[in-house]
Design a protein that fits this description.
Elements (H helix, E strand, L loop, with lengths): L6 H19 L3 H4 L5 E6 L14 H8 L2 E4 L5 H4 L9 H12 L3 E9 L18 H19 L5 E6 L12 H6 L2 H13 L4 E6 L5 H16 L6 E4 L2 E3 L4 H16 L4 E10 L31 H20 L4 E6 L32 H10 L4
Parallel strand pairs: 1-2, 1-9, 2-3, 3-4, 4-5, 5-6, 6-8, 7-8, 8-9
Helix pairs in contact: 6-8, 9-10, 10-11, 11-12
Bound molecules: ligand G3I.
The site of ligand G3I has 11 residues, from loops.
Length: about 375
């Protein structure tokens, strides 16, 4: 008679077989990498709308493939605080409530940013720039009101966004003109006071550039040493494939090492990969940079050549291999815009192009990239 296995061993073998089966069939990037980092995606207001907006079909793809979400626009100052004495959380609550009901965690984006900041924020009733004290009071009120509105529902915040130029200088924003560099420290202090449990991030683009990441690190290191409540530094990761894949990847690895010297972790907050020509040697995501449309800068109107897709796959495979190697420093890997159809890249830096910058195609089908990235960690953890 066949010797029966002790029941415990049999159950354990059954559980291993089941998990192996899951590994074999895993199609969710977030689930595949859940022991490495959080995997997130930005969500626009139409994807969480309650009407029959065509983009609402994106929601199931978001829930199936990610475990964090960040609002692409609906939590920004101009939307939630359109007038000095009026807040409007309609779209933001719709987004947060839908995310939480799907067991997705929420990253708040973004509290203090020179762009999409309400027009009234820096001016008095006569149209003059407000005083330093007035701006501090307005920042504190905005940050406190917004964070306390979402307290317990939003687990992390991009507190300050894009405060440095690519060469490492402070951006000459109205926040900087009125308060100098102190506005950054103040914003984090106000945020921590408003919600001591929230993770607080600094977020910026072009952080693969040594001049920028070193300036950011040199700015935050002494503040963190003195107790600034900074959880991590988010590198947006808006990448242009023609800028040179291997240099980009090695530069980002250098940046992870630079951020480590601050004593905080690294997040990737807005990853996408433009595959269109970079006509002007342009890089970064400074939304005020605009360029005229030229047909030769829009080569894939009909379709993306298979060879170009293989280049994209290889970039992400090599990028993720670098991330896995540095997994102890990385808290999150967020992508920006779910699919090629709703990606901001189609209109930036040149309006009206057809880019292929995301992980999902215009029919919400996962690109081959997703399966190849899952394969990298299949049966490993
Ligand atoms: O909602 C209005 C609509 O009412 C109006 O009819 C329309 C007219 O143009 O504009 C709509 O607002 C647009 C908004 O997106 C919402 O769709 C703005 O024009 C447009 O400029 C804005 O673009 C956003 C961009 O930030 C501007 O700040 C992009 O969607 C968004 O992806 C992008 O995201 C930023 C991150 O927040 C920070 N890091 C860089 C990243 C890319 O720029």
């Amino acid at each position: 008679m066949k010797k029966l296995l002790p029941i415990g061993l049999a159950l354990m073998m059954a559980a291993c077989a089941a998990s192996d089966k899951n590994n074999e069939t895993e199609t969710s990037l977030a689930k595949a990498y859940e022991k490495y980092w959080y995997t997130g995606i930005s969500v626009n207001q139409w994807e969480t709308a309650s009407d029959n907006n065509p983009q609402t079909k994106d929601w199931k793809v978001i829930v199936d493939n990610f475990n964090w979400v960040v609002a692409e626009n609906c939590m920004k100052c101009e939307v939630v605080h359109p007038e000095q004495n009026r807040y409007d959380f309609t779209l933001a609550d719709q987004f947060v409530d839908k995310a939480l009901s799907a067991n997705l965690k929420v990253m708040g984006h973004c509290l203090i940013w020179h762009s999409q900041c309400a027009k009234w924020f820096h001016y008095d009733s006569d149209g003059n720039l407000v005083s330093a004290d007035t701006l501090k009071a307005r920042m504190k009120e905005h940050i406190t009101t917004v964070m306390q509105h979402f307290k317990g529902r939003v687990a992390a915040w991009d507190v300050c966004n894009e405060c440095f130029e690519d060469d490492g200088a402070f951006r000459n924003s109205l926040f900087y003109q009125i308060l100098g560099e102190d506005f950054i420290k103040l914003a984090f202090e106000y945020a921590h006071e408003a919600d001591p449990d929230a993770e607080l991030y600094y977020n910026d683009y072009s952080m693969n550039k040594a001049s920028k990441v070193e300036a950011v690190a040199n700015f935050f290191a002494p503040l963190v040493k003195n107790g600034l409540p900074l959880t991590a530094i988010n590198m947006q990761g808006h990448i242009i494939l023609d800028d040179g894949a291997q240099k980009i990847i090695s530069d980002y690895e250098h940046s992870i090492e630079t951020i480590k010297t601050v004593g905080v972790k690294t997040g990737f907050s807005e990853l996408d990969l433009s595959v269109l020509p970079n006509p002007y040697g342009f890089s970064g995501a400074n939304v005020s940079d605009k360029f005229a449309y030229r047909p030769e800068m829009d080569p894939y109107i009909d379709s993306l050549p298979a060879a170009r897709q293989l280049e994209i796959d290889q970039f992400w495979i090599d990028f993720f291999k670098m991330l896995i190697k540095n997994r102890d420093e990385i808290t999150r890997v967020n992508f920006w815009c779910l699919n090629d159809g709703n990606s901001w890249r189609n209109d930036f830096p040149i309006r009206g192009r057809k880019d292929y910058a995301t992980l999902f195609d215009r029919d919400n089908k996962p690109k081959p990239t997703v399966a190849k990235l899952i394969e990298l960690v299949r049966n490993k953890q």
